[in-house]
Structures are given as C-alpha cells and as structure tokens.
C-alpha cells in the first residue's frame, strides 16, 4: 500500500486528522520537499510530532529512481509525504501511476493547497481563478526576467476577467525562496504595473495579505517564506470590498463600475 499524504501549508500540525492517522499506521515514510516545503517545521520536528522516521528524497530520487519507494510499498504500508496537497504536482501523479502499474494499491489523503488558501485569505472567489503560472528566478531559465509564457498566461486570464495565481520559485537545495517584493518588482518592470495581492505564510497563525500596485508591493518587506502573488482580473463588488478590508487595497485600485 502506498499512501500519498498532503501535509498542509505551514507546520507539523497542518496535516488533516485522517492524514495523521494514516501516517501513524505506516511502516515507512518517504517525503519530498523540492516542489514545496513546510516553512514552519523542520523534518526533525515532523518526525518528532508524528513519531516516524522520514526518508527525504530529492527530485531524482522520486522521478528517476522511485524503486525504493515502490519496493517498500509492495511489502508493507508506506507513506509518501509532500507539503500542501499531495496530488498537485505531476511528479506525484507519475509515482502513483507507477505504483498502479505494479499492482500496488494507493490511497490519497489531501491537504490544504496554496490556491485554496490564497482565495480564502484574499476574499477572491475560487471559481474565478484561471490558469496558474510560476515566476522563476532569472538564472533558472536563462532568459528574460519575466518569461514570455508567464506574460501570456497573465494576459489570457485577464482577457477572460479571471484572477491569476503566481507561484514564486523555490530552490530548496539552495535554501532560496523568491519573495513577494522581488516578484512584484520583476512583474512591474517586465509586464505591467497593475493591482496585485501579496500573500505571505499562508496557513501560519499570522499570514500577511497586502493589495496594491506591483511597484508599491515591490517596496515592502514580507518576512519569512513562503510567498505568492495573485493578479486579480475583473472584480465582483464583494471581492473589491475584501481586498480593501483584508489587504488594505487603495479604493481607487479596486473600484467596480
């Protein structure tokens, strides 16, 4: 049996009760934190809280060399742990398919996602989000500061009046996490100086939500990771009120005709 368990957004307590119970019943636990991580907990804190030993795998150890995980799952109960929801990344879907091909039963224990948290914290309605995009570090893609594909994604969503969730690049092996102010500055210069919402440490006891022009957000400090940005599309009047109330948005930027 291979259980895919989402750990939630922030620390060792962000997991669901169902996920915690499933983890406690497993013989071995593997995890990856290259797609995301828990900013509020170390691996050691996770192990102590859940009373398990966790074997952390890098990207190659999941995507190219998954045999140790699958072999263990053929002979016992195995947990595969990730931050957020466990099936957001195609990496994890691929691992589940490999297990299926080998006749290994799988179960999925979902966790809270950054997208649902961003919607809830900002007050922007979840069904009005379009395709998400990722803003990479410039050195990671070797091109312009803002990739053309990201701009196209933003523009496609805006043409349909939809909001865009902008994931910010992380390099866990280098302990490097793009901050919302850096991302806002890149978008203000490489795309357009539009209304955006910075969200920092979603899922923590004290998350930050700030709505303003990208150039203004670029001048702020949002503290420890993880961060993301939301670029709103057309606003419903309730969304506009939420951005003013919860994000401090200037009234002129969220005026609804």
Structural class: alpha/beta
- Report helical residue fraction: 25-40%
Give the strand order, joined by hyphens, for the main sheet: 3-2-4-1-5
The helix/strand order is EHEHEHHEHEHEHHEEEHEEHEH
Strand content: 15-25%
Q: Regarding CATH, which class of the largest domain?
A: Alpha Beta
CATH architecture of the largest domain: 2-Layer Sandwich
End-to-end separation: 55 Å
Arithmetic mean of pLDDT: 94
Tell me the domain tally: 2
Instruction: Kindly state the number of beta strands.
Output: 12
CATH-defined superfamily of the largest domain: Tetrapyrrole methylase, C-terminal domain
Quote the CATH topology of the largest domain: Methyltransferase, Cobalt-precorrin-4 Transmethylase, Domain 2
- The coarse silhouette is elongated
Largest sheet: 5 strands, parallel
Radius of gyration: 19 Å
Please mark out the parts with pLDDT under 50 across 5 or more consecutive residues, or reply none.
Answer: none
Put simply, the count of helices is 11
Short descriptors:
Cobalt-precorrin-4 Transmethylase, domain 1; elongated; alpha/beta; 2 domains; Methyltransferase, Cobalt-precorrin-4 Transmethylase, Domain 2; 257 residues; five-stranded parallel β-sheet; five-stranded mixed β-sheet; 19% strand
Explained architecture:
It is a single chain. 36% of the residues lie in helices and 19% in strands. The chain has eleven helices and twelve strands. The protein has helices at 17-24, 43-50, 59-63, 67-75, 90-101, 114-122, 138-141, 148-159, 180-190, 214-217, 237-247; strands at residues 2-6, 28-31, 54-56, 78-82, 106-109, 133-135, 164-168, 170-171, 176-177, 195-200, 208-213, 227-231. The strands form three sheets. A five-stranded parallel beta sheet has the order 3-2-4-1-5, with helices on both faces. The chain has a five-stranded mixed beta sheet with strand order 6-7-12-10-11, with helices on both faces. It has two domains: 2-109, 3-Layer(aba) Sandwich (Cobalt-precorrin-4 Transmethylase, domain 1), CATH 3.40.1010.10; 114-253, 2-Layer Sandwich (Methyltransferase, Cobalt-precorrin-4 Transmethylase, Domain 2). The chain has 257 residues and is α/β, with parallel strands linked by helices. The protein starts with a strand and ends in a 10-residue tail after the last helix. A hairpin with a 4-residue loop joins strand 8 (170-171) and strand 9. One of its GO terms (biological process) is protein histidyl modification to diphthamide. Belongs to the diphthine synthase family.
């Amino acid at each position: 049996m291979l259980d895919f368990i989402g750990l939630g957004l922030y620390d060792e307590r962000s997991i669901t009760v169902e996920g915690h119970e499933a983890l406690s019943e497993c013989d071995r636990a593997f995890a990856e934190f290259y797609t995301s991580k828990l900013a509020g907990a170390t691996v050691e804190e996770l192990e102590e809280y859940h009373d398990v030993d966790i074997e952390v795998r890098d990207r190659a150890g999941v995507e190219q060399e998954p045999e140790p995980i699958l072999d263990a799952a053929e002979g016992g109960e195995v947990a595969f742990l990730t931050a957020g929801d466990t099936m957001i990344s195609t990496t994890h879907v691929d691992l589940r398919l490999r297990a299926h091909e080998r006749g290994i039963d799988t179960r999925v224990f979902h966790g809270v996602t950054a997208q649902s948290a961003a919607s809830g914290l900002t007050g922007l309605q979840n069904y009005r989000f379009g395709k998400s995009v990722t803003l990479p570090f410039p050195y990671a893609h070797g091109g312009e500061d803002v990739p053309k594909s990201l701009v196209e994604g933003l523009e496609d969503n805006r043409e349909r009046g939809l909001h865009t969730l902008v994931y910010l690049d992380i390099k866990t092996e280098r302990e490097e996490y793009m901050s919302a102010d850096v991302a806002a500055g890149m978008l203000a210069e490489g795309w357009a100086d539009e209304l955006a919402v910075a969200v920092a440490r979603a899922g923590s006891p004290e998350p930050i939500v700030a709505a303003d022009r990208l150039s203004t957000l670029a001048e702020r400090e949002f503290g420890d990771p993880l961060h993301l940005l939301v670029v709103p599309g057309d606003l419903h009047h309730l969304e506009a009120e939420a951005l003013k109330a919860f994000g401090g948005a200037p009234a002129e930027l969220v005026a609804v005709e």
